[in-house]
Amino acid sequence: MSHKGMIRGLSLLGVVGALAGCSGPEAGDTAQEAVGQVESAAVVSTITEGDYVIRSVRTNKCIDVASSSTADGAKVQQWDCNGTNAQKFHISPTSGGFWKIINVNSGKALDIVGVSTAENAVLHQWTYVDGANQQFQFINRGGTQFSFHPRHTGMAMDLSYGSPDNGTLIVQYPFYADRDNQRWTFDKVSGGGTGGGSGFGGILTRDMFNTMFPGRNGFYTYDALIAAANGFPGLATTGDTDTRKREVAAFLANVSHETGGLVYIEEINKGDYCDTSWGPPGCSCAPGKRYFGRGPMQLSWNGNYCAAGNALGLPLQSNPDLLAQDANAAWRTGFWFWTTQNGAGSMTAHNAIVNGAGFGETIRTINGSVECYGRNPGQVQSRIDKYLQFCSLLGVSPGTNLGC
């Protein structure tokens, strides 16, 4: 993808692709299945019934039942996210806008110890008995960030002292709007789907994904892709079946081109990519951090990391490496660009497909300033060839206006 200097603001343009001699594989990048790979799911802006992973906005670590305990009174803490059921919670409504939060592993509820009304009373797990100290209200604090409050006190659930340490307790404390240790994101892992339905998962099966990307890096899993796609309601759900299939084919063809067939996670030429003259207000470069290309769209430049992070509720300014560590976060940045950014073109890639402008306009949006207008016809043709292949696999005609 092209250098950000052509168009500034929030458009994702500063991305160096993995093709055309720009990149090569990282050591270990070609392992087929990553063992213990941490994946978030569809981070939501509205709570509905389903299973969730709950993350601290302050630390991006997960709420966890200590040692996967099933006992009443087991400690509830912050811990590195690990994908286990001890870090998954089924959230369902009770009454009056309140919800119960049941650990998937133990079947026990999150509970304020002893029905305490004191500040710093600890959250633990207990058998659900319909107590007011076991029911919570979720309040959206902007975007995908929430505070949540036990029914009996209305205080906020608080990461104690904002500590980054594993094992830190979750307590109740009066709410302060400026404290990010009282804000949380909710990553939906079921109850809104990982596959099937009318969206991406309704078009792309696991077997088809494997056929399209036989040599992919194990980081790029099907489950992470589908869970991330489910967080973008218009994606592969707009228009007739042929339009939806073309959108899936177009997105995957472009990310295949950017990553060498989903082989590369990070750009090899790891420059700083720091430029504070553009991007969202206050978007500085964190000390020691570099903003080179990562993920399926090879997100680059601090301004783009800030814009994507702000939109998705991810700490990408302070932790750009997250996109090489969390597959779902990586996919979500790709879908964020696809559905919201005009890039080097005049429309989003999503709109290019659903409004019939054609695959060529997706190329223009993603890398038009480098590839289109006769500047690099070989790269344009490479994208078109992959799109034609994927359309054939999905059983849909490619439409018109394939080039740029």
Runs with pLDDT <50, length 5+? 1-41, 192-197
Order of helices and strands: EEEEEEEEEEEEEHHHHHHHHH
- Report strand order across the widest sheet: 1-13-2-5-6-9-10
Which overall shape is indicated by the principal axes computed on the Cα atoms? elongated
Report the span from N to C terminus: 14 Å
Strand content: 15-25%
- Could you say how many structural domains there are in total? 2
Overview of the structural elements:
With 404 residues, this protein is an alpha+beta fold. It has two domains: 4-35 and 194-394, Lysozyme (Orthogonal Bundle), CATH 1.10.530.10; 60-190, Trefoil (Acidic Fibroblast Growth Factor, subunit A) (Trefoil). It contains nine helices and 13 strands. The strands form four sheets. A seven-stranded antiparallel β-sheet has the order 1-13-2-5-6-9-10. Strand 9 and strand 10 (146-150) form a beta hairpin. Helix 5 (302-312) packs across helix 6 and helix 8 packs antiparallel against helix 9. The longest helix is centred in the middle third of the chain and has 19 residues, at 241-259. It is elongated. It starts with 41 loop residues before the first strand and ends in a 10-residue tail after the last helix.
